[in-house]
DNA sequence: CTGAAAGCGCTTACAG
DNA sequence: CTGAAAGCGCTTACAG
């Protein structure tokens, strides 16, 4: 069995209570005693038992990280490691641990979250996605546990704490950038339609078109889970339109490169024949050919700030829901050309 | 305060001990009582407190995941999410949770691991990397806690449980594939030299050359942390050699594409002028141009099996150290050509 | 089949 | 400045 506080107490000739206070660096304990007890702790290789400590404190110093459908998309995309890096940094600075969801289906994830929360496994939660009618989010809203969402909640956003890019305006600006380059036939390849980020970007896309009197045509949009199977066909359809697009906005750099690959197979060249712009500015995008114009959404900062917000709420439960906007910026590289 | 076992007991008119046994589905409790108590638990929304349960059981049903230097490389590379996906699947199936290291430096990570282990925060550990003279590994060896390494330990490998690709032979086969294509001047771009995987692949590279009577020339090797800053120069140097290589083996697909980018900047074309092969078979590699020939190392399975091994050791501590080899296979695509 | 009691390893009022 | 005692929420021999 491991060394306990009692063992240390006995050896040091003090009470367990005193040892506990030395660990907590309680100012009412004499320096002399502290020195003595610390020496014994070190000699014996004592480490506090988290389970016991957490039980009495009724906290875990742990943040739960909930990601969508770990079995599939979430893991394919560099977004996940990067946002996790931000969370990780912040958590480490505050001496918090990270507990990861492992569920593959919505139902599994829901069960996990309930257990994390009710079982007091975590002190707070970062929800890494935002989708419409999400039971997980609804559960968290009703629970007392501090949490923050990466992304804008679909309903009643002001009542929850979240970080977000202004996806509507960012998408709008992006499309306007292409319009400024002379493009009028701009296609939009978006993500799954139940994700708020997809909805927002689609809206920004439409706003930009409207502003410049370009009619919205649903045939110019592809909305589905990419990296799935029918992408190639979608691109073929898009380029086979009576008036094919001269520019394509894709919701992720990786998807952009996938699209570029399909286009090259069709002997359509980027940016000569079609301009392409991505989102997320993955590390690799600057090295690939063509270097991808993209929107950097500060993924690391999204994670960092989300963790910060949860930690804040854990420290002070009275803090009202807060919304933090993280900047995004267009990075011009070589995948778009002026018409 | 949350609902406890006592609240349920009172409402159901039984003792807390009985409630506890109902939760554990103890066969000595009558069905009638079980039904009654379960109904009350449901009505009250009772969930067991993990901290308390773990304290008396002296286990946490949690696996610690230790990754190298979370602040930098580990997160840039799709290896991490993919291996995590494997671990996650296995852990979820066994109803284990995942606890992630957050440290950015070797020293921070070491401290975290010690706390995880001594503080009984986790029941087992998966070490996601293997490097030479790693204090973390040495600590784990001395501890009683079950653990598994992804990668071959540098010293005394038979005494630790690990999963690995046969990196030496895989690298050897890869180089021989290029030799079979007629290449004699083959460069090797490897990872950081304190990682065992880099050492092994370099050795395989050398073995292949030796077997075919091609002298090893250190000028044909680049060994450093790529994605750092001097990569472009290294490639320029390589291609400026009196006899430049006709083929380059890189230790990762992302690095391969970075190299391809630098080569294109030098007006050197792949595969026309230089053949390139990668490692790890990232999802995106098949879509990019040129489609990358690469070695698939079954990253998902590495994670899955590592988790499986730890779980096995947790269940039965008497199991001797085990070594599991995970297959790797060469995937021919369009980035290599016959001379 | 069920309960009272002890205990897991800590922390923290309460006393002194 | 320090200790004895109670308690965090659970589990599990021991009795009956």
Automatic annotation (TrEMBL), chains A, B:
Keywords: DNA-binding, Transcription, Transcription regulation. Residues 3-57 form the HTH lacI-type domain. Pfam families: LacI (PF00356), Peripla_BP_3 (PF13377). One of its GO terms (molecular function) is DNA-binding transcription factor activity. This is LacI family transcriptional regulator. It comes from Planococcus donghaensis. The lineage of its organism: Bacteria, Bacillati, Bacillota, Bacilli, Bacillales.
């Amino acid at each position: 069995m491991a060394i306990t506080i009692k063992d240390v107490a006995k050896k040091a000739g003090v009470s367990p209570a005193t040892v506990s206070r030395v660990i907590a660096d309680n100012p009412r304990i004499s320096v002399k005693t502290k020195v003595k007890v610390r020496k014994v702790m070190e000699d014996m290789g004592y480490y506090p038992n988290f389970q016991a400590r957490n039980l009495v404190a009724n906290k875990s110093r742990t943040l739960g990280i909930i990601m969508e459908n770990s079995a599939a998309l979430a893991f394919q995309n560099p977004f996940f490691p990067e946002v996790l890096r931000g969370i990780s940094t912040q958590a480490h600075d505050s001496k918090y641990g990270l507990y990861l969801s492992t569920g593959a289906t919505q139902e599994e994830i829901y069960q996990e979250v309930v257990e994390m929360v009710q079982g007091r496994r975590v002190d707070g939660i970062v929800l890494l996605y935002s989708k419409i009618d999400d039971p997980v989010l609804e559960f968290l809203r009703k629970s007392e546990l501090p949490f923050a969402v990466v992304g804008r909640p679909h309903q009643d956003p002001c009542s929850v704490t979240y970080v977000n890019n202004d996806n509507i305006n960012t998408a709008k600006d992006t499309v306007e950038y292409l319009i400024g380059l002379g493009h009028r036939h701009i296609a939009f390849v978006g993500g799954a339609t139940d994700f708020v980020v997809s909805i927002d970007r689609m809206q920004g896309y439409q706003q930009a078109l409207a502003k410049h009197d370009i009619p919205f045509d649903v045939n110019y949009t592809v909305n589905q889970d990419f990296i799935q199977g029918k992408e190639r066909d979608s691109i073929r359809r898009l380029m086979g339109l009576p008036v094919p697009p001269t520019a394509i906005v894709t919701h992720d750099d990786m998807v952009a490169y996938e699209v570029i690959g399909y286009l090259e197979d069709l002997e359509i060249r980027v940016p000569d024949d079609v301009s392409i712009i991505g989102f997320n500015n993955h590390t690799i995008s600057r090295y690939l050919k063509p270097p991808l114009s993209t929107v950097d959404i500060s993924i690391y900062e999204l994670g960092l700030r989300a963790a910060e917000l949860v930690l804040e709420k854990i420290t002070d439960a009275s803090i009202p829901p807060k919304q933090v906007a993280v900047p995004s910026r267009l990075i011009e590289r070589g995948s778009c050309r002026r018409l």
